[in-house]
Amino acid sequence: MRAIVTGADGFVGKYLVHALQERGYEVAAAGGPSSSGELRINVLDTETILHALEAAKPDVIFHLAGQAFVPHAVERPLEAFEINAMGTVRLVEAVRTTRGGNYPRIVFAGSASVYGRVSESKNPLKEDHPISPVDPYGASKAAAECFGMAAWCSYKVPVLIARSFNHIGPGQGADFVVPSFAKQLARIKAAGEKPVMYVGDLTTERDFLDVRDVVEAYIALAENGDPGEIYNVCSGVPMRIQDILRLLIQIADVPIEVREDPTRMRRSDLKTFYGDNAKLCALGWAPKIPLGRSLREIFDAALAEQLQTTQ
Fold first, then answer.
1. What is the pLDDT along the chain (311 residues), one digit of tens a residue?
2. Which domains does the chain have, with CATH numbers?
């Protein structure tokens, strides 16, 4: 099996490339326009997409490339739509117009942000819940998945939609809540910084899944999923952010004062938000990595990085 992974130089992409190679896939790891790898895909440039398709001749495309940080999308909505929505349109259209009906499967890494603001009674969210995004990031992902579904219905390009909830793991950027906590704790432990942590709203509950379970889900969709279908990629278990922080503090084993930072509050935050993963589990997938292990490895990676910078 030959695979292209767009966004291969990103957080999830690196894990996915490794997992595919372990399974014996021939992987074309397509980084972004600034990537140092041999195969580059700039989703703003159709020519780079066409070149990659010709070079790799994939059986499956894992489309992970995108603008992934919600606050950036809020600040630059046109950029978010150009990358997330139109970038997906360019990729799917390039496949449709060059493969003569012999289409590779396309697994699109979507987002649970498309569900938008939902009442607590609707949790856990199923795939048939109406989508109603409340920020430009979610809206751009909704537009992308709508085109993917239309490509299946109109042209039979086999697009599968993965609606991923929060995913975590070693190597994730510190813009996100869990690595942000881990990085602050690592600085306090290794560098002797003032034992004060700045946090946003700790009362929210979210659905966290280890990145390695996420990539296993994407592979399960590529191998066993049904084109034109949507699958939640989630643990199915809500976890309070306050409890995540408490576990990380226990792992770090340092005394901490926690202070609320108004700049870390998100206007559209929902108190409880988690998914139903039964449809994905029916394909034979199940989450394997417990939250405690994920948090331990995230903190250990942050601490190792901090120790390296202080040497």
1. 999 999 999 999 999 999 999 999 999 999 866 555 567 889 999 999 999 999 999 999 999 999 988 888 999 999 999 999 999 999 999 999 998 889 999 999 999 999 999 998 999 999 999 999 999 999 999 999 999 999 999 999 999 999 999 999 999 998 899 999 999 999 999 977 789 888 888 999 999 999 999 999 999 999 999 999 999 999 999 999 999 999 999 999 999 999 888 877 665 467 899 999 999 999 999 999 999 999 999 999 999 999 888 76
2. 2-167+208-233 (3.40.50.720), 173-205+238-272+290-310 (3.90.25.10)
CB atoms within 10 A of CB 102: 9
Element counts in the chain: helices (H) and strands (E): 11, 12
SS3 label, residue 171: coil
DSSP string, 192-228: ---SEEEES--S-EEEEEEHHHHHHHHHHHHHHPPTT
Euclidean distance between CA atoms 144 and 300, whole angstroms: 36
pTM for this entry: 0.94
By residue count, the chain amounts to 311
